[in-house]
Design goal:
The protein is built from four helices and eight strands; from the N terminus they run βαββββαβαβαβ. It is 21% helix and 24% strand. Strands 5-2-1-6-7-8 form a six-stranded parallel beta sheet, sandwiched between helices. A two-stranded antiparallel sheet has the order 3-4. The two termini are 22 Å apart. The chain is globular. Keywords: Hydrolase, Metal-binding, Pyridine nucleotide biosynthesis. GO terms for molecular function: metal ion binding; nicotinamidase activity. It comes from Epilithonimonas lactis. Pathway: Cofactor biosynthesis; nicotinate biosynthesis; nicotinate from nicotinamide: step 1/1.
């Protein structure tokens, strides 16, 4: 059975000191590096938030405060601080993430009108990123997922992987949550397990 590791958004803006820093984000990088070193993955794929500066998920582009929610293209959109803007240091992968064995990079969130938490498609499920096709082209059957942040981009990447027919596993020690709400991390784990995604502790 061919397997892939999907590393979600381990970028400077989500790490310590970043514009949208996830608590304890840096602590998962050695774990992810260890997975890449100790396992034989057929594919190792990085996803990368890659927003235009005028992206409509940014509070600053809507005259809103971070943490508010607006309706955008018929869906609820949480207002984020500016982050992972194309070509900036914040959008780059963290320097400590070992990329020697990476086989492919998927960029997401490029359409100013729609946010993209999942590595597979935008939040409205209008446009796919090409990740599903890439995995199927390479005969991948099992995917393991790590990265940032558990309660947003990791969660929706895992759900989409499972719904696309891949055996899907989440490494609990390879992810951290934003925890906009106090129980977000715990609720996300329960939600993913309930859907049939394997949680590897």
């Amino acid at each position: 059975m061919k397997k892939a590791l999907i590393v979600v958004d381990v970028q400077n803006d989500f790490c310590e000191g970043g514009a949208l820093a996830v608590p304890e984000a840096n602590s998962i990088i050695p774990y992810i590096n260890g997975l890449m070193e100790d396992n034989q993955y057929d594919e190792i794929i990085l996803t990368q938030d890659w927003h235009p500066a005028n992206h409509k998920s940014f509070a600053s582009n809507n005259g809103k405060n971070v943490g508010e929610t607006i309706t955008l293209n018929g869906g609820a959109q949480f207002m984020w601080p500016d982050h992972c803007i194309q070509g900036t240091f914040g959008a780059e992968f963290h320097k400590d993430l070992n990329r020697d064995k990476v086989t492919h990079i998927i960029q997401k969130g490029k359409n100013i009108e729609i946010d993209s938490y999942s590595g597979f498609q935008d939040n409205n499920h209008f446009v796919k990123t090409g990740l599903e096709d890439y995995l199927k082209y390479h005969d991948i059957q099992l995917v393991e997922i790590v990265g940032l942040a558990l309660d947003y981009c990791v969660k929706f990447t895992a759900i989409d992987a499972f719904n696309a027919g891949f055996i899907t596993c989440l490494h609990f020690n390879g992810t951290k949550a934003v925890n906009v709400k106090p129980d977000s991390a715990k609720n996300t784990i329960y939600d993913l397990a309930e859907k049939g995604i394997t949680i590897l502790a």
